[in-house]
Amino acid sequence: MRQVPGLTAGWRITATGIGLVAVAPLLALAWQAAGGSVGQWAHLAEHVLPRAGLNTLLVLAGVGLIVGVVGTGTAWLVTAFEFPGRRTMAWALLLPLAVPTYIVAYVYLDLLHPLGPLHGALRALLGIDDPRDLRLPDARSLVGCIVLLGAVLYPYVYLTTRAMFMTQAGALLEAARSLGTPSAALFHRVALPLARPAIAVGMVLALLEALNDIGASEFLGVQTLTVSIYTTWISRSDLAGAAQIALGMLVIVLALIALERYGRRRQRYAAQRRPQPMRPERLHGVKALAAFVATLLPVLVGFILPFGHLTASAWARWRREGVSAQLMDSLWNTLTVAVLATLAALIAALVVVWALRLARARRRPALETASVRAASLGYAVPGTVLALGLLVPFAMFDAGLSRVLSTFGIAPQLWLMGSMAALVLAYTLRFLTIAIGNLEAGFERIPTSMDDAARSLGRTSSATLRQVHLPLLRPALAAAALLVFIDVMKELPATLLLRPLGFDTLATWLYADAARGTYEEGAIAALLIVLAGLLPVILLARAGHRMGRHHVA
């Protein structure tokens, strides 16, 4: 293939710069950790890491078990069987994705409180007057944390596994069924082995979310590594110690990624012009009722109860006192940083992916591929770890800029750390992967012949991008913008560490309300976050519905 005349050095340099910026927090983190004393590390190893590390591993093991069983089981039920309510449950099982982990913990702490609505309803039903005579399971425990995290994270496994059952597995499952394989054996001998790669992908995504959690673990009294990083830095002002704990978390992240790679090591599929769907087996009577209840329970625990309680609490607060000016300020702050971070992520992703496409045309994409991989690291790194790695680079930038500006008589100040700029940059690096993935998928749908045609007409690479690709990329850009925007609205760990003094988002407002033990106005903030989170879930449900309808047709 001939050289691409429109490929300028600017695209490559900019894409490489973005990749380096994405790697910089991890390098800074290692440098901070190395600056700690040996005695400091010994203290952490003796008093912090054993308990926090064990709790983290137990949380990950428990959550992995729940999301694997619930996600795979519900995906199999709505794919392999026909029962009343199946079509509704097929999309409803995605709804817990709209509820962040810290919100589900916030809700159940109130629901399961001895004076909460669930206790009150049960006491009224059973005729019990004294709250001490009726005890429900305590959410403030390791088991409570595991169950609640699993209740909102299982859709990651459900989504990937159901897609597998609906596409690649259909023909083989039908072949096995035609040979007389019973339904139970069909699942264990055929469906489950086929679905292992999809289960591995979904479980790793869920476990990365569980590892990133700080609000739920802290609310429920479970000291994990993420909570330990936050308390070590905020409470003890020990940046080196927090960085050393963060490196331990990175080891777990690498182990999870290796687990996902191992789970997909033999993933090979035969090409099919049109995947054959599996014909669901109709259930009747008790079996149909059991299937419906089994699919309803995860939705009830992970979405219906939290959403219903938040709606009731928010309505009670609205009717009694309205909404405070401070909460409205938090809403404005949330929308502002979400819009800015979304724009920054889209621009950065567009530069990186476009540079990769241009380099592939020259068949020399090594540097650009490395830039894409580096820029995609942020989503795998927990928000607390990423924020901690950015503290020193941001502080160095502020100090350097202040020295330069002081020669012009401008007083020193925190240019990044004292403004929302630090948050916008952190969010951009954290969620750049989402934008890159959507734009890569969008570019793959555009044939390279269109690039050749544009070059033959004398268009430069920039003009080709602007006049040819951007109009065709509008759906991918819109999807990426929506997903990044919603994730920024929900992000809590990075916001807690990098927000300026007196700057609150909806997530930090809710966090502060929970820390004070006041729930009603926090319910309004939580409800706004959940309502925003429903948007991408609705899109996923519509896409799944179209897929199912296409297969049935």
Could you give a quick summary of the protein structure above?
76% of the residues lie in helices and 1% in strands. The chain contains 24 helices and 2 strands.
What order do the helices and strands come in, and which of them pair?
Layout: H1 9-34, H2 38-47, H3 49-80, E1 81-82, H4 86-92, H5 101-111, H6 117-126, H7 142-153, H8 155-166, H9 170-178, H10 183-212, H11 215-219, H12 225-234, H13 239-263, E2 281-282, H14 285-321, H15 325-361, H16 366-375, H17 383-406, H18 421-444, H19 448-456, H20 461-472, H21 474-490, H22 493-498, H23 506-516, H24 520-552
Parallel strand pairs: 1-2
Helix pairs in contact: 1-13, 1-15, 1-16, 1-17, 3-4, 3-7, 3-8, 3-10, 3-14, 4-14, 5-7, 5-14, 8-10, 9-10, 10-13, 12-13, 13-17, 14-24, 15-16, 15-18, 15-21, 18-21, 21-24, 23-24
List SSEs in N-to-C order.
HHHEHHHHHHHHHHEHHHHHHHHHHH
Task: Determine the mean pLDDT.
Answer: 82
The assigned structural class equals: mainly alpha
The backbone outline, from C-alpha atoms, is: globular
Flag low-confidence runs: 1-7, 269-273
DSSP E strands, number: 2
In helices, the fraction of residues equals over 70%
How much is the radius of gyration in Å? Answer: 25 Å
Task: Estimate the strand proportion.
Answer: under 5%
Provide a count of the helices: 24
Taking the alpha carbons of the first and last residues, their distance comes to 41 Å
Strand order of the largest sheet: 1-2
The biggest beta sheet, please? Answer: 2 strands, parallel
